[in-house]
C-alpha cells in the first residue's frame, strides 16, 4: 500500500443556484466510508465502487478528498452531489430542506487536536473516535467498538480498517474489492494508491447463504 501526497480539489463557481435542484433520486452512488482515530491522527477508508441502481458499474471512483492541509472529507451516497459539495464547500448552505444526497465523514488534525465526525443528508451529526456510513454503521462499527483503542498505531489502524472493509466486501453487494486508505497528520493528508484485499470465499455460509435464514437478508 503506497501513500501519495494529495492535491487540493479545484473549487469552481459554476453559476447561480436559482435554476438548480438537489438530487431527489440518486443515480450513481458510493457505499460505506469507515474512519478512526489513531495515536498520530486520523485514518479513513473507502472502496472505489460506484453503483448505477443495483448495477456495480464503476470501479475507480475516488470518494475521499483533502480539504485544506488539515482536513479530509469522505462521502457515501450520490457521487455527483459529492462533486458539487467539493465545488461549493466554502459557501455551502442548507435551506428549504433541499439537501445533498450524501453522508459525509470529516477528519482533521491541527495543533495537536484531532477531529472525527460525520453528518447525514438531513444534518444529523456527531463526533466519535470512529465513524462509518452506509452498511458500515451496522457491520463495521461493532468491530470498531470491540477493537479500537486510543493508542492504536498506524499499522494496527490500517489492519483494523482493512478488516472492516473486508467484512463490508463480503456482506454489501455495492462494495468492490478496490479501495484506498487515507491518512491525515500534522504534516498533511496522504491518500494511498488503490489496492485490493486478500479474500476467501469458500466459507460454508457463502456456498448456501439462504440455509437457516428466516425471512431476512
TrEMBL record:
Any one biological process term the GO annotation gives: proteolysis involved in protein catabolic process
UniProt key word Phosphoprotein: no
InterPro entries per record: Ntn_hydrolases_N, Proteasome_alpha, Proteasome_beta4, Proteasome_bsu_CS, Proteasome_sua/b
Cellular compartments annotated: Cytoplasm; Nucleus
PANTHER family: PROTEASOME SUBUNIT ALPHA/BETA
Function noted in UniProt: Non-catalytic component of the proteasome.
Family indicated by similarity: Belongs to the peptidase T1B family.
Name listed for the protein in its UniProt record: Proteasome subunit beta
Organism: Durio zibethinus (Durian)
